[in-house]
Fold these 3 entries.
Entry 1:
Amino acid sequence: MNPFFAEVIGTFILIVLGNGVVANVILKLTKGNGGGWIVITFGWGMAVFVAVFMMGQFSGAHINPAVTLGLALTDKFAWDLVPWYIIAQLVGAFLGAVVVYIFYKNHYDQTEDPDVIFATFATKPAISNRFSNFFSEVFGTFVLILGVLLISGPVFEDGSSDQINFGLGSLEALPVGFLVFSIGLSLGGTTGYAINPARDLGPRLAHFFLPIRTKGKSNWDYFLIPIIGPFVGAAFASYFYLFFVS
């Protein structure tokens, strides 16, 4: 499969399952209504896991421009592919949000609170404070990218000087899923932990364009924080890895 197409599909899966769990928990009259924060964070962790194990063999399943940047800064990914990966991720995220809306259309029609509707698309801080909101996104992404850079497949040493690397197939995606789950539980309460520019901007654009009956504003006064913050966090994590780990 073409790696750029795989990034579109991977990010599409991420948003369908990630925003899908949010919609299931907070929209009116769903079977999962009232499931709470644990369900949402676990759902997002599993969304990452599923997207990575399904598309990882084709593109590496970055599914996040911050991951793409972090890998490029540490010379683990080619710079000339970075813009194409980011475009693919944005396209996948936009399409995923549109599908979540179509899937839950009846429940969107029953939900009158515009803030609830918006929360199924993009992030919004619990308390609006630009400095602390920015720091939250930077630090959350720092933890994510550093974790991604440190995660490696198991190594078996046979007693000689050689090492035999072997994989666990889809289980290699589990650490990343658990990492996102942990970040959501511990660091997600301030901004909703975008930690992924495409995850926020693509669905925010979908919210802006879709004809949702009772939607409010798309909060464009905030959108730069979940874009710039994750990129800054990825840069910090990459340089930390280069200077102190590798």
Entry 2:
Amino acid sequence: MRPAQILRLPAFLVLLAIAIGLSACAGSSQPPQEAAPAPEAAPTAAGPVILPPPAPAATVPAPGAAPIPPLVSMPPSAGPAPALLESRRLTLEFPHKIRVGDSDVLRLTLEVDELGGMTPTAEIAGHTVTGETVQIPDLYETHTVIAESRLDLAGMLIEPSETQSDQLLPGRPVTFRWSLHPSDVGTYRGVVHLSLRFVPLTGGAESRQTLSSQVVEIQAVKFLGLSGGPARIAGMLGSGLATVLGFPFLEDILRWFWRRMRRAA
């Protein structure tokens, strides 16, 4: 194109041609960009891939149902169940008064409690009777159960004075007796002890259990200052005199004798 013709072109075409020429020059001046290297592939394991087990799915209760409690591991048992208990009635009978020179009996009985209640304190023929319910381990199949009792009563002669023992069998009572002989007037206080001894049938160490320790109080007295023997003789004479005085025809007999004596005089 000739210069004269270029001058006759519109101005916007001239500006467009200049802009295209500048952009072409800028693109040719920048160095070519290198392609980014491809990422290396992860090494493949020789063996099979083991995935972790999936977590257990949570149990969702149905609408309106009670929530499911979590599982709790129970601890192991601490030991065998305790032995059963046998209910027995313990009865103590003793005199509250004894004449000096006389004797009486103190009695302790351990029997099966069929009623399941306590025996109230009572007085029968001058004797005080007390009762209580005790619980005994039922170990008759594995142990020999021995009942032992002792009476501590200072100042009074008691027979036997040593500890008494007897084997305790299921459903059978055991009774201990002591003979009491006071030698002087006074109040005597003592204690009646009762315990159980468990002897294993297969051998081994014995064990012991205290069941009861009961306090007793006994008074030794004299009748008109007399001991037992003279007091009994005086009582017999008084009883005979009362019988004679109570005879219905005694007054008539005395009058007849009085008349005979006056006539003889």
Entry 3:
Amino acid sequence: MEKDFIQLVRDRLKSDLPGRLAHLEMMSYIRDSAADIRKSEVAYREGAVMMLLHRNVRGWSTVLIERNSYEGVHSAQMAFPGGKRDPEDRDLMDTALRETHEEIGVHGDDIEVLGELSEIFIPPSKFVVRPFVGVLKSPPVFIPDPREVADVFSWPIESLLHQNAIKDATVIVGGDNVKLKVKAFKAGGRVVWGATAMMLSEFRHMLQK
């Protein structure tokens, strides 16, 4: 583990985060902030995800999953491991660690949580999501849950930081197959857009400041 990079991430997560400025760069439409939603009368749900870092032959990478196709608003989308808060979860970090274990087989004991990014509100599913950033303590062994995860793979942080990392893309959303033009990252030939792209954008801004 290169402690210099991990220490940089840890330190930047403790400083002022770029938040909405970074989120706006990847929004396909203007959405309310998580802070505004928490103050409103909107009936939202809470969730958490884990941006998991690890080192491999390509350098530092983060873990992304491709969700299975299903009858829902996030069908077949790229995401971080995560999901809704369960009543037995002590807090949202517990949610992120539990969901990471359930979805990709990485146990919470193998993850050092470095901090958290800014919360994001996801209007289609009415979730307020808190992203955590963690680092694997040992080389990863992924065991994806076939009920939820179609694929799991690592994407180099170097690619995220590339000056031309942000691309224009067209995605199909909803049961009516509506085409939507979005800003996205291309990770392993896959289009990463929406809330996950917003989180990646904040991490990108955070490291580049």
